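[step 3/7] inverse_fold.run input=structure_tokens len=383
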């Protein structure tokens, strides 16, 4: 019983690390308990969807996987990572059924609302370790109110590969199943580069895990990016900007209309977002809500760099720094240490999960607005 309790609260006990550079050190990661499960998802044909201009929709579906798991977890923290066209997470065994049901519900919703096929799987950690890989996690805290999980060990990537091969599949939810996506939104406007371009970077180790050679390469990349203004953070220090109507209004309507007709719910959201925009635009406090504080916190909380069996970054990057990064990555790729992909664009975009505007635990996923992580990863597949 004690072991079960300890395993269930394993993630709660992990230290929060405030320095992103610490995450390049393999010693920062702790293996998950043996009885945990790994959830993975991705959109089949996401590269084609991006080419058709549907990247904001692709991001919304990827973030929906995390939103549904957060709501199913009932307040219990757990490790998750956003990947652009999908997401990964880990959960204790007592949450298996709820996690599987939430995955199946988002898969059903993705097909019904957008015609996008979401692949999902729930993989026992024992199977990953039997394959000679592992899943270790760390917690990165970019701001006092929020932290994000970082993954290492190769197991998350292995689980995704097996999912794409049709293994560890979850039974379909009944037609019409609606996931709980409370808090999922995308109301902020795209953020134009201030330094030259928004560079989406995806770096994967060539080996089955993330060993010392990859750790040294990751440290070099993080060191270079640290020399950018605010470390390459795409969100301005004063916070993101919102306009009305927000560009993601229809997507948010798809996420929250439930059984109400989409058009009717969209009209309701037009009014709700207009009122919100007035308070945010002119920073008008209302009750306990401080719009100025909230706007700044959005930027501080933003998830623009992560480790998930590799390194992903969305950087506001100048030409000289991009040249340095390319040189380091090309050398590492030539030496067989990594594979990598880069996507250069003019803007970054943000997809959000906001449980409450009165607390600072809202999360914001940053990606490039013209292909981003999906396009960068597609370059790797073409190698």
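[step 3/7] decode complete -> sequence:
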């Amino acid at each position: 019983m004690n072991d079960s309790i300890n395993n269930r609260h394993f993630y709660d006990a992990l230290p929060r690390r405030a320095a992103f550079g610490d995450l390049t050190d393999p010693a920062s990661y702790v293996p998950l308990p043996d009885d945990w499960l790994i959830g993975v998802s991705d959109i089949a044909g996401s590269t084609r969807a991006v080419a058709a201009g549907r990247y904001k929709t692709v991001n919304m579906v990827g973030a929906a996987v995390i939103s549904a798991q957060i709501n199913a977890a009932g307040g219990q923290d757990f490790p998750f990572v956003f990947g652009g066209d999908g997401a990964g997470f880990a959960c204790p065994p007592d949450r298996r059924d709820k996690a599987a049901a939430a995955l199946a519900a988002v898969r059903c919703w993705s097909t019904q609302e957008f015609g996008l096929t979401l692949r999902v799987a729930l993989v026992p950690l024992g199977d990953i370790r039997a394959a000679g890989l592992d899943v270790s996690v760390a917690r990165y805290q970019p701001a006092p109110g929020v932290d994000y999980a970082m993954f290492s060990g190769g197991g998350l990537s292995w689980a995704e590969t097996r999912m794409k091969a049709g293994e560890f599949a979850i039974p379909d939810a009944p037609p019409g199943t609606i996931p709980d996506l409370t808090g999922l939104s995308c109301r902020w406007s795209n953020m134009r580069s201030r330094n030259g371009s928004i560079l989406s970077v995806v770096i994967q180790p060539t080996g089955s895990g993330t060993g010392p050679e990859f750790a040294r390469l990751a440290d070099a990349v993080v060191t270079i990016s640290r020399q950018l203004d605010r470390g390459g953070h795409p969100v301005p220090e004063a916070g993101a900007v919102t306009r009305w109507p927000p560009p993601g209004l229809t997507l948010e309507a798809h996420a929250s209309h439930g059984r109400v007709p989409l058009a009717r719910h969209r009209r309701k959201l037009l009014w709700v977002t207009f009122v919100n925009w007035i308070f945010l635009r002119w920073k008008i406090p209302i009750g306990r809500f401080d719009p100025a504080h909230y706007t700044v916190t959005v930027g501080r909380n933003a998830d623009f760099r992560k480790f998930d069996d590799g390194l992903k970054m969305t950087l506001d990057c100048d030409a000289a720094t991009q040249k340095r990064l390319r040189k380091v990555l090309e050398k590492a790729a030539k030496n067989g240490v990594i594979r990598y992909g880069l996507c250069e664009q003019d803007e970054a975009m943000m997809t959000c999960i906001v449980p409450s505007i009165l607390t600072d635990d809202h999360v914001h996923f940053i990606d490039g607005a013209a292909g981003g992580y999906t396009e960068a990863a597609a370059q790797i597949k073409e190698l």
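[step 4/7] annotate
The two ends are 49 Å apart (CA to CA).
The chain has a mean pLDDT of 95.
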